[in-house]
Amino acid sequence: MSTGSYNFETMGNAEFQTERLSQQARAVRGLEAGILRSAGIQTGHDVLELGCGPGFVTDLLAELAPQGSLYAIEPSPTLLAQVENNVRHKPARGLFPIQAYGDHLPNPDNSIDFSYARFVLQHIPQPDTVISEIHRVLRPGGHFCAVDSDDGLVVFFPEDTRVNQVLQTAQSAQLEKGGDRFIGRKLQNMMTKAGFINVKSRVLALTSSELPFEVLFNILLGYKASLLKDTIDLNKLFQDISEQVTSGHQLVAGGVFIVTGEKEITHN
């Protein structure tokens, strides 16, 4: 499978990216726990996390399914090597970090109760294939939850031409690598086509009035910085907008799509 638009091994700013992922996970941990509970995760579930990264969200999944098992799937060996240390309490039936791509999961058919993909599908050249794989490994009645971005939900007001440049440049760069900055709006259709039932979408809005600006800025633009190289001074942009947000003259908002579905229970 193509590495898509997120290849940690070639980014060159590993420390920044790891801290960004950690900061995101800490800032929205309580919120994310509520999303996962609403999506159907239970204490004894066998859980599969797609694109676990260094394990910051894996730790939360282990906390929510302490009596189950947890398969942490990640293609990057560098990130996967960090998972064990970042999961404080292993689930009762085991934590299994596995180097694999989402289009060829190592799990048997009908073996997983709950699967989670967080900001992953936007990077994958053929997300429909991955969603079909998740459907395969889920047990009948199992749940899948995907949380992902959509740049159509990003708002900076008053507008800043530099922000528009970052968004447009990153959208093009990610598209060239096989990614999709507008994946959020497409997930419901993809999941339905893959055979999921009771597919539901909602949008969670995050604003500079609710989150620390540094956290929100990194959620909206942090990954994009790795695509831009030196085409824009991101630190200067952050400082300028931060001052405007602090003074109340600037609103920054972004949204994520939360899409859930179930695997149908068939009766013979």
Q: In percent terms, what proportion of residues is strand?
A: 15-25%
Query: What value does the Rg take, in angstroms?
Result: 18 Å
Give the N-to-C terminal Cα separation.
36 Å
**Which class best fits the helix and strand makeup?**
alpha/beta
Low-confidence spans: none
Count of strand segments: 8
CATH class category name: Alpha Beta
Average of the residue pLDDT scores: 91
**What does the main sheet amount to?**
8 strands, mixed
CATH H-level homologous superfamily name: Vaccinia Virus protein VP39
The overall number of domains is 1
**Number of helical regions:** 10
**Looking at CATH, which topology would you report?**
Rossmann fold
Outline? globular
Q: What proportion of the residues is helical, as a percent range?
A: 25-40%
N to C succession of SSEs: HHEHEHHEEHEEHHEHHE
Could you say what the CATH architecture is? 3-Layer(aba) Sandwich
Q: What topology emerges from the helices and strands here?
A:
Layout: H1 14-27, H2 29-39, E1 46-50, H3 56-64, E2 69-73, H4 77-80, H5 83-86, E3 95-98, E4 112-118, H6 127-137, E5 138-149, E6 155-157, H7 161-176, H8 187-193, E7 197-207, H9 213-228, H10 234-246, E8 251-262
Parallel strand pairs: 1-2, 1-4, 2-3, 4-5
Antiparallel strand pairs: 5-8, 6-8, 7-8
